[in-house]
Write a structure and sequence with these properties.
Blueprint: H1 6-15, E1 22-24, E2 27-29, E3 36-40, E4 47-52, H2 56-72, H3 80-96, H4 98-109, H5 113-135, E5 141-143, E6 149-157, E7 160-164, H6 170-184, E8 187-191, H7 198-210, E9 217-219, H8 224-233, E10 239-243, H9 246-258, E11 263-267, E12 272-276, H10 283-295, E13 305-311, H11 315-327, H12 347-359, E14 363-365, E15 369-370, E16 373-374, E17 377-380, H13 387-390, E18 397-403, H14 406-414, E19 418-419, E20 421-425, H15 429-438, E21 443-446, E22 461-462, E23 465-466, H16 472-478, E24 480-488
Parallel strand pairs: 7-8, 7-10, 8-9, 10-11, 12-13, 12-20, 13-18, 17-18, 20-21
Antiparallel strand pairs: 1-2, 3-4, 5-6, 6-24, 11-23, 14-17, 15-16, 19-22
Helix pairs in contact: 2-8, 3-5, 3-6, 3-7, 4-5, 5-6, 6-16, 10-11
This protein binds 1,4-dihydronicotinamide adenine dinucleotide and beta-alanine (BAL).
1,4-dihydronicotinamide adenine dinucleotide is lined by residues 164-168, 191, 193-194, 224-225, 228-229, 232, 243-245, 248, 251, 268-269, 302, 349, 352, 392, 394.
Pfam families: Aldedh
InterPro entries: Ald_DH/histidinol_DH, Ald_DH_C, Ald_DH_CS_CYS, Ald_DH_CS_GLU, Ald_DH_N, Aldehyde_DH_dom
Protein name: Gamma-glutamyl-gamma-aminobutyraldehyde dehydrogenase
Length: 498
Amino acid sequence: MDLLTQDEYGAMAQTLDFPSGAFIDGGYRPAISGETFTSVNPATGTPLAEIAACDGRDVDLAVTKAREAFDDGRWSRIHPGARKDVLIRLCKLMTRNARELAVMESLDSGKTIFDCETVDIPEAINCIKWHAELTDKIYDQVAPASDDHIAMVLREPIGVVGLVLPWNFPLLMLAWKIGPALAAGCSVVVKPAMETSLTALRLAELASEAGLPRGVFNVLPGGGAEVGEPIGRHMDIDMVSFTGSTTTGKRFLGYSGESNAKEVVLEMGGKNPAIVMEDAENLDRVAQHVVNGAFWNMGENCSATSRLIVHRDVKADLLARIEAHARAWNVGDPLDPETRVGALVSKAHYDKVCGYLDKAENILFGGTAEGGFISPTVVELAGNDHPLAREEIFGPVLSVIEVASFDEAIAVANDTDYGLCASLFTANAKRAIRGARVLRAGTVTVNSFGEGDMSTPFGGYKQSGFGGRDNGVHAHDQYTQLKTLWIDLADDADEAVS
Ligand SMILES: NC(=O)C1=CN([C@@H]2O[C@H](COP(=O)(O)OP(=O)(O)OC[C@H]3O[C@@H](n4cnc5c(N)ncnc54)[C@H](O)[C@@H]3O)[C@@H](O)[C@H]2O)C=CC1
Ligand code: BAL
């Protein structure tokens, strides 16, 4: 991918048309209330767009349109290959508009243009394509039954799905959810985070251009209480898939229980450990993985490495290498393609992360915070009980905890309410496998940092996840429900039924 220069990206930013309406039933429209909110570029504080501030009435309208679309089968009952064709056309349109989407995403979220161009947009396209390709390659099942019967297990799309999204990977998290949901034949009502609504709105427009029937893909910008809660409580939504904080995620269990017992899938916070044992090979490479895990996307990542649990014998050497690599991560204008650490998503979130820096008693390096930007920071902790070791910070702050043995490292790693990801660096194969088995996390990486890829499920143990997984065939399956079809084949029409 050839990147532009900072000036060229700046010039492009001036020419973008930002969407402003909610996207309902195939077109943009104002919120029923007529209210709007201002979307702000967190890197500069300048307003980008006035966006429709939806509420429960818009949710009702969007759900009605989504239900009509689902029930008349314009998407849910067409040939899977036809669904695939539309989604592949959407991927082509995304590719054609990739640069526009990348700049829009960077302006709206503070993410670096480098990441938007090289990760967020291409991975979003790849995700939708992966699920589109799956659509006409999976089969239903025939169950064992007597010769007088045929028993089938059919997968049907679950129905109207609410998708409630975070701000840290706005388009990519949307793709993780609409990819499998649309491929399965569902209609979706999407609520982007208020901080980052622009690319979701633009994507709905592109999907319409690709031929997605109206009513199938609706996007409702607005607040959590105004849009998220009505989605969670709606009596005609069959399932909600949510990504965000554990506190808000748990609310959806209550909404479901107090409404129609809709299915709920939650992908929530993390406090992810990286364990580095004294036998880890190539400490320089380990340091690069730790820096990437901790500081990529400004640490605004549920899978971010936020606790470095390091054996005392390699601690000094490893920290020196981490510092050297982290210092090479430029902090600054997200539209400069050399920048690796952009702005935090909002003033409120910046203030929250600064509050954690204030609590840090021993900052080893970094800790510079100015105007919405925070430099990669490493903090030494005496143990795992400090708030920096227990609470999700969601910023470029790595806490270091020293240990003296493998068993102690595993115990510290598991001593958390979260269980999303963990990484383990060791050259000892037995330790690697034993460690991977006992670490209580949905994804464990050995001698690397990562989340797997499109084909592997992503989600958490403990308070990091509930009800399912993003990515892979598992994600597709969770947007479907099973129907048993049992057919009597006996040639005995005259016999009494017993
Ligand atoms: N796991 C992850 O990927 C993410 C975790 N977070 C964590 O959450 C913290 C707070 O960030 P927020 O943006 O406030 O996260 P949040 O979990 O409150 O927001 C996620 C989504 O839920 C919606 N929402 C908020 N309150 C709601 C409610 N009462 N009912 C229904 N929907 C609601 C939001 O508008 C947004 O679309 C961050 O500092 C970070 O620690 C934030 C974003 C993503
Ligand atoms: N890293 C993708 C999942 C998330 O941060 O929410």
